Amino acid sequence: MAEAQDGHYDSLSQSTDSLRIDPIYESFLCPLTKQVMRDPVTIESGVTFEREAILKWFNDCRSSGRRLVCPVSRKELGSTDLNPSIALRNTIDEWMNRNEVAKLDVARKSLTSESTESDILQALQYVAEICQRNRSSKHVVRKDGLISMIADLMKNGSTKVRQKALETLCVTAKDDDDNKIEISAGDNIRTVVKFLSHGQVQEKEQAVSLLYELSENTDLSEKIGSVPGAILILVGLSSSKIENLLIVDRAEKTLENLENCEKNVRQMAENGRLQPLLRLLLEGSPDTQLSMAAYLGELVLSNDIKVFVAETAGSTLVNIMKKGNKEAREAALKALNQISSYESSAKILIEVGILPPLITDLFTVGSNQLPMRLKEVSATILANVVASGARFESIPLDHNRQTLVSEDIVHNLLHLISNTGPAIECKLLQVFVGLTDSPTAVQNIVEAIKSSGAIVSLIQFVEAPQREVRMASIKLLNNISPFMGQELADAFRGNFSQLSSLVRVIADNNGISEEQAAAAGLVADLPMQDSVLTRRLLQDGAFATIISKVVRIRQGEIRGGRFVNPFLEGLVRIVSRITFVLDDDPDIIAVAREYNLTALFTDLLQMNGLDVVQIVSATALEKLSHQSKVLTRILPAPNPGFCFSIFPCLSQKSVATGVCRVHHGICSARESFCLLEEKAVEKLVACLDNNNEKVVEAALAALSTLLEDGVDIDQGVMVLCDADGINPILEILCENRNEALRQRAVWAVERILRIDEIAYEISGNQNVGTALVEAFRHGDYRTRQVAERALKHVDKLPNFSGIFSKMGAQ
């Protein structure tokens, strides 16, 4: 260290001559280093050297194998003994002290903005050197008021002066708490912090080093942290990939020092540095744990941080929630509420056992129960956890192995919904939404709702004034409607106002929301054949509104995000209700005509990619087409006249112009729902190529109405021929995708084969013959009968009916 100190002083001798009062004497200088000696020793030759320098000389001689000689006289030495030169050292110290006092006075005069840059730099250099050489000098520097003068130079216009001022302050602050306090006076710390974000690299290095020195004083930690942006900048520097290692290291160590102040820990957490907060949460006193948990609940955390917190402190927070006092439990609950809002972190909380205490908190009554505001937090956490999608049917809640989907637990949750305020109602409804989203849990929930008779209570919430309560209720009812359609229909018939409320939700014109999609799905799942509900919807004007929305969506006038497709599917299914109650009901038929449903569903067939829309549309067209044979207007037969009555051989079969070839009457898409008039046949044939078997089945069922009894089957076949529909039907038969499709295909093919020309052509098709044989062998009774008739058409089975009729004639 002596060599380093003397090095500083030697630079003083070269750069601060203008500050020297007493001249330097030759005897003060080491012959080897040419620097003022701090520990002079005399060797055997009588020459005095700096101890460290002569020891190095001796070591170099030994290591190189040279003779041991005096560096000055070159005389060989017989001994390496060193004799301290105490008198010379005292003389040097006295000289240095005289000069230091004088030089400090000169330096003070140079540390002003009026001085030249070189004078200021010389003065700063001297102050730094004197503080490094002698700790007592730091006291003198502070006493003489130099620290405030140096601090003012941080605002100097010269980059070199600012950098040197920071460096000098760092030296004066090291290991001296009084100097640190002096440096931190006024807005000096704020000035230092500015260098961290705006300074040049060298300034930034010196500034962060100075902050580190200041942060070593515990009392200054809060003051540093209170400077706006200080901790944020330090956190950024400590994790920077572009700053040099010195800056990163000093920033990290400064933050570590600042962690002794809780306010700083909170700021660090706000800026993404959560480790200090979590460490205090895990290892701190109960009061500290309470404080950290409370603050954790106030933070806005990124999803990655939520996972980190759940992994690090989830178990501790759950334990506080279970065993802490009311204040501690409140803090833990709020923190867990924050963490549980992300799926991955929620699953971690499930693993550390959050479910049992949550359920206990919700169900406990009496003196130990939580206040309602905390029960709301518990319900919110439970809703968050359930939304994670875990398999709750396999997670036990108590020693009886009950789970969230156990009947008793579900009954208790349903009871809570009916006996709390809107806030908790909403969260518990969201719990049920999450549980019924699971295909493995929904059936348990449905059975529990049925056994509790709670469906009437649940549908009341669709009229709730609070939008979140209403939306959660509608989403829940939508989830269970595929399993409880009849129960829901019965409940809605008991109070039509709730059905009307759903229609109002669907009719809302503010975009397309999740609530609207759920409401449409719920209404669509009600039993299609329920004419009472259909008439109620008609009375509420629902069909006019819904058809208008379908058309506008189809035309691109209404655009939506991720809910547009389920919303459209629900709307189309609702409109299709009309086609399920057409039989013998002139009023409903009039509605179908009014809205030209044949044209609407034919157009919707073209919505490729929306299989549900295509399935529903094809099914609706099938039901509409069934009505065509009774709705077509049959023209009266023409009068044959006198000649034709006498000579019938002269008569010919007349065909009236404009008569439907299949239905033999005047048809239209609007009035009689005729598929031919709307050109729906070609679009249905196109659907036979769909990959979804349900789409194919629905399209084939609609086309089959052209071949059913009561219409001109021959002409129906010809219509299919004109639309290139025969081969796709034969391919469906041969592919044998499923039993339902095979049954429909066999029926249609048998009707097609009644045309002799087609039967003759197909008789050579081995694949069709094989498919019919398979249907004849393995189909159900009805399919075997139809397949048998089809095989006879292509001569694969003998037709004994003709033989028997001839034998009877004989």
TrEMBL record:
One example of a Gene Ontology biological process annotation = protein ubiquitination
The enzyme's E.C. designation:
2.3.2.27
| Pathways involved | Protein modification; protein ubiquitination
Name the domain of life: Eukaryota
Read off the SMART domains from this record. ARM, Ubox
The broad enzyme category this protein falls into is transferase
Q: Name one GO molecular function term.
A: ubiquitin protein ligase activity
Which keywords label this protein? Transferase
Question: Which Pfam family would be a valid example here?
Answer: U-box
Where is each U-box domain found? 23-102
Q: Where are the transmembrane segments?
A: none
Fetch the SUPFAM superfamilies from UniProt: ARM repeat, RING/U-box
Catalytic function, reaction form: S-ubiquitinyl-[E2 ubiquitin-conjugating enzyme]-L-cysteine + [acceptor protein]-L-lysine = [E2 ubiquitin-conjugating enzyme]-L-cysteine + N(6)-ubiquitinyl-[acceptor protein]-L-lysine
Q: What is this protein called?
A: RING-type E3 ubiquitin transferase
Organism, by scientific name, is: Eleusine coracana subsp. coracana
Q: What is the lineage of its organism?
A: Eukaryota, Viridiplantae, Streptophyta, Embryophyta, Tracheophyta
